[in-house]
Amino acid sequence: DFSHYRKTKIWAAAFLPIFGFLGPVVIWQWVMSIDAHWYSTLFAWYCFASLFVAMVALSILLIIYLKSKGYFEQITTEHLHDLGKYLFAFSIFWTYLWFSQYMLIWYSNNGEETVYFHTRQNEYSLLFWANLALNFLVPFLILMRNDTKRKYGTLVFTAGLLVFTHWLDFFLMIKPGALHTAHELSAAHGGADHGASHGAEHAASFVSGFTLPGFLEIAWFLGFLALFLFIILRALASAPLIARRDPYIGESLHHHV
Fold it and tell me: What is the pLDDT of residues 170-225, one digit of tens each?
């Protein structure tokens, strides 16, 4: 019975133009607008590449987890090898966009644009360079070999790392602008000296919650990840194809959820 497959194709085709239009708009409004005087024509592509890598990584983790529980018997090492190639390729694509955005803006030497990278290089230098190393060098060196894309342990490690590090990528996009806005609001309410010293203190050292993610940021990340997994596993547990093929599988998946 391929009825669900056909429905998925229809919904996917209908959703693609919606996502293609709304995706960049949401990214511009929610992320790029935080640094109000900065603009990049590559920003929507850059964020899309980051989201796509994280999506492939989560797909790999979910498939391997469900296979370890006895599901998805039809999925073989060849399928995971293809997903590993996607992960490898789009990590390189993300790096290409990272370099293109950085090189073009830095080379233009436009003050309103270069301040974006100047702030992140000088005040968030650990995250700035770790972002490039963890999202490019690590998956590139691990997944470059053909056999590593076929090993569950290697794929789980790389995919799990990329889910977290691409969240760090968005943290680095958002935190400096949000912190700058907080300092401006503090100065506007009479705390100019305190706001300036507060910013200088964080720029001079690595502070949890400011130049590094703190407990609150990591808790939000884990909370949304748990909500995503809960919704996905509940949807899979109620899938009629699973229940009709083997009632025990449906019951056991409900138990895991």
Answer: 999 998 888 877 776 766 666 555 544 554 455 445 565 567 788 888 999 999 99
Distance of CA 96 to CAs 90, 99, 100, 193, Å? Answer: 9, 5, 6, 41
List CB contacts of 29: < 8 A, sequence separation 6 or more: none
3-state secondary structure 73-121: CCCCHHHHHHHHHHHHHHHHHHHHHHHHHHHHHHHHCCHHHHHHHHHHH
Beta-carbon contacts of 251 under 8 Å, excluding residues fewer than 6 positions away, are none
Q: Which of 1-15, 178-192, 224-238 has the lowest mean pLDDT?
A: 178-192
Does residue 160 sit in helix, strand or coil? Answer: helix
CA nearest 99: which of 143, 45, 56?
45
Please give the backbone phi and psi of residue 208, each rounded to the nearest 5 degrees, phi first: -60, 130
C-alpha to C-alpha distance for 192 and 194, rounded to whole angstroms: 5
The two tokens of residue 151 are: 């090993």
Using N-to-C axis directions, what is the helix angle for 111-123 and 77-108, rounded to 10°?
120
Please give the share of the chain, as a percent, with pLDDT higher than 70.
81
Cα 40 from Cα 26, distance rounded (Å): 15
Q: Rounded to whole angstroms, how far apart are CA atoms 145 and 155?
A: 12
Return the structure tokens found at 46. Answer: 């850059």
